[in-house]
Write a structure and sequence with these properties.
about 130 residues, mainly beta, ten-stranded antiparallel beta sheet, 10 strands
Length: about 130
């Protein structure tokens, strides 16, 4: 079995760029739970996708066993949850408000990643998934 990596890196967009409430980027589907347009902003000299407390959901094109994330929070905790295709929670991470952090979430057959909280001051700089292909 071979692996390939897909990455959504928001450094590609200028600060202030508005995206639709639902969009596809790097083969991942992003849905902003509030229905409003997410915004790319610069914080600590790095661009990221800002999301509101209601969160944002990212759906992968196929299952992954590991997700690499660079997420920043400045005002409040962010909860990141990974679900398999049946909706079962397979991994989670609580991000403390301390600027950008890099981490990896490992779980069996991750299909969806949900970001919640942050008091409207959290950003996703990047999300990458290592996908298996036959």
């Amino acid at each position: 079995m071979r692996n390939f990596e897909i990455c959504a890196k928001f450094e590609l967009f200028p600060s202030g760029h508005k995206l639709p409430p639902a969009f596809n980027f790097s083969s991942m589907n992003f849905v902003h739970n509030s229905g409003s347009k997410p915004l790319v902003l610069t914080e600590a000299n790095e661009n990221g996708l800002r999301f509101e407390d209601q969160g944002i959901k990212v759906t992968l094109p196929t299952d992954a066993d590991a997700i690499s994330i660079r997420c920043g929070s400045w005002a409040d905790h962010v909860l990141i949850e990974c679900y398999d295709r049946s909706g079962t929670l397979v991994a989670s991470q609580n991000v403390v408000p301390s600027g950008y952090l890099d981490f990896e979430l490992v779980g069996n057959q991750i299909r969806t990643v949900a970001f919640l909280g942050g008091s409207n001051e959290a950003l996703i700089a990047s999300i990458c998934a290592s996908l298996d292909c036959d």
